Amino acid sequence: MGNLLHYAIVFLIVALVAAFFGFGGVAGTAMEGARLLFWVAIVLFVVALVANFLRRA
């Protein structure tokens, strides 16, 4: 899961740099990629927490 967050941060930085230089299409695509990876990481984190809770109970 750490890799997903790493790539989300990389996509966010790419989006910010692209937006700074005026590449709106690239910035929007990179931002959507970062948002998608972030939410996937959050969902996997919640699933892991629930699985861990159920396994211990």
Q: What does this 3D model show about the protein?
A:
By secondary structure, the chain is mostly helical. Helix content is 91%, strand content 0%. The protein is built from two helices and no strands. It has helices at residues 2-20, 24-56. The chain is rod-shaped and about 55 Å long. The relative contact order is 0.17.
Please tell me the overall pLDDT: 91
Helix/strand class: mainly alpha
Helix content: over 70%
Order of helices and strands: HH
Number of strands: 0
Which ranges are low-confidence, i.e. pLDDT below 50, for 5 or more consecutive residues? none
* Continuous helix count: 2
Integer-rounded radius of gyration: 15 Å
Span from first to last CA? 24 Å
Strand content range: under 5%
Which geometry do the CA atoms define?
A: rod-shaped
Describe the sheet with the most strands: none
Quickly list its features:
mainly alpha; 2 helices; 57 residues
Sequence-ordered SSE layout with sheet pairings:
Layout: H1 2-20, H2 24-56
In short:
The chain is mainly α and 57 residues long.
